[in-house]
Amino acid sequence: MTASVAENLNASSRSALSEKCGRPATEESPTQVQVESETCSHDLWRIALYYIYIEMSAAQVASHINLQREVCEGLGLNGRIRVSQEGVNGVLSGKHEVLRIYETRISQGLEMVSDCTDDNNNDDDDRAVDLDVKYCELRTDLPVEKQLFDRLIVKNTQNVIGLFDQSIAHEQQRQQQKLLKSERLRRRRERKRQQQEAKRRTKLGEDQQQEEQQQEEQLQSQSSITPTMAQNQTKSVDESNEDPSLKSLDISSLYRSVMEEPLNPETHLSGTEWNEKLDAVASSGKSALLLDVRNVYEMKVGHFVHPSTPTLLTNTRKYSDLPQMLACNKEMQERDQIFMYCTGGVRCERVSMLVRELYPEKEIFQLHGGIQRYLETCSEEKEKQSEENDTNTDSNTNNPGYFVGKNFVSAERKRQKNSTTMQYSTRTISYQHFLLRFTQVFDPRRTDPIHFGETVGRCLICQNPHDDYDNGHAPSENKESRCNTCRMLILICNDCRPKYRCHGEITSDDQNNSKSRPLLYCNVDTCIHEGSIPDPELLVAPREKEIEAITES
Fold first, then answer.
1. What is the pTM of this model?
2. Exposure on the CB side of residue 303, measured as CA atoms within 13 A
3. Residues 415-444: pLDDT tens digits?
4. Is residue 349 part of a domain?
5. How far is CA 519 from the centre of its chain?
6. CA dist., res. 481 & res. 470, Å (int)
């Protein structure tokens, strides 16, 4: 009887813990104990970011997915992992020591994959697999449990990270197939007409043939439209129906040359080499450009600012908007050197190939490990300097690098139905009421706590320094500021936030108060679908003015 009670208690505790972690209740993992008592110590926990490009077969992908699930579930780790035939891309949360164990086991598994690939290619070069994991510290102003992933997602994807909008590529391919089909039909009709003409002429005498031939020559000389011109007119009519953004850039061919080819990135620079190269631009006589390949809401809270090199803030809403924007940007066309960066480095891998395809004559560099590795290097250099000088300087001052602000780390957003669905008697439901029937579920969205005192973000209303989209709340609470139309993240300070109603703020409790406040959009009172169209005024960060503003703040 006692044994059965103990088994029930163990089963119930595992069930409650698995419900919290988002996994089925099976067996206990080493890190599933004493979570509540240890969450107060932020130093024990980390967010791990990593990616690796390694060729795998379909069978190896399936095997590695099983390995990822087995290791993560055994260690009690949650997060999101993408596995494809070209590599792995993952972000996980857990204890620092446990994440180190995960890194070792996954590296060993990928080394076996690499050995099999080398054996098939008869390659004797034994190279160790380097995941290059970046470990991000947690924010100390938020509870640990609200910054951790609540579930594990391991999925098979086509790419490590997708750069192109497949709908645009498919649309261009469909239009090309339509043109080819119409051309085949035209040629078929032409051949049929020629065959009928040949049969008819065999039945006529030579005199009639000569007479008809003369008449045809006269008609051709009088006609002002040649077959080639008619074909061009038909083609122009077809092109007039196309989307202007589609015909300005051949996405299909660009996709094949960038995404379907083996990875061949440009020169990687460490944090120290990055600073040295940027400092040497002024004396080299070449023009350079810092290229931020992240999204608009990421670069608003932090980006690179260099005294002699401008920064191209691409103002893109999503990663797949980059090809069109980079192809038509004047700054990209005029500069000799391109220095690109992103959060952890994975987005630059394919973008560097894209820029090489668009501008083959330029020198292209990318920041190894991204902003996260750069901030770690700057933090280590600052500690060394403080030790050499024997001074206790504040960690939030004297930035040793060129990145200002915060490093925004984002994750995918998902939506699930709420168990307490509201009932409506009317058939037509307003959009605000429709939102009440769903619970927004977000993976932890955070900014790295390594910060050197600069606040580059500005409140949309009062323009005061502000860089927190959640206004002090945890991202898991879903109280971030968003545009009421396009749902873009908006920076609005704590003083201005109560004066406006952001997207999804209407509830049954404060419905009357919310209705009295004006709706907030990404352009205050109007929606401009920020990030959907490149804005020339936001492309190049003003160097002197921005540095002055940062110094004043």
1. 0.70
2. 32
3. 443 333 333 333 333 333 333 333 344 445
4. yes
5. 28
6. 6
